[in-house]
Design goal:
There is one protein chain. The protein has helices at residues 10-20, 58-72, and strands spanning 2-6, 21-22, 27-28, 30-37, 40-45, 50-54, 78-84, 87-92. The mean pLDDT is 95. The protein has one domain. It is built from two helices and eight strands. It starts with a strand and ends with a strand. Helix content is 28%, strand content 44%. With 93 residues, it is of the alpha+beta class. Strands 1-8-7 form a three-stranded antiparallel beta sheet, covered by helices on one side. A three-stranded antiparallel beta sheet has the order 4-5-6, with helices on one face.
């Protein structure tokens, strides 16, 4: 399954891509969604750090949260992320 998430800008897209999936170790790094405030998403990582990511809209936040929930619950793993300008394509399996 895959989804495309629209971030506020290219920087936020690169940040989202790098924070949720580590390509070298083929490892999913996100462990929890801590908070959602309008179009801002606060996520927790395996190292217990928290990071804010600003998406394009509240609809994009809902799409990401729905998509990533099965990854957080360890039912799926992220297979790849690709950043294209302000968009992040996320594939899980």
């Amino acid at each position: 399954m895959k989804t495309i998430i629209n971030c506020q800008d290219k920087y936020e897209a690169q940040k989202l891509s790098s924070l949720i999936y580590i390509k070298d170790g083929n490892e999913t790094f996100i462990t929890e969604i801590l908070n959602i405030v309008e179009n801002e998403l606060v996520i927790s990582l395996k190292d217990k750090s928290a990071h804010s990511i600003i998406l394009e809209s509240t609809k994009q936040v809902e799409t990401f949260a729905d998509f990533i929930q099965s990854v957080i619950e360890k039912q799926h793993k992220i297979i790849s992320t690709v950043t294209i300008n302000e968009k992040v394509e996320i594939v899980k399996g």
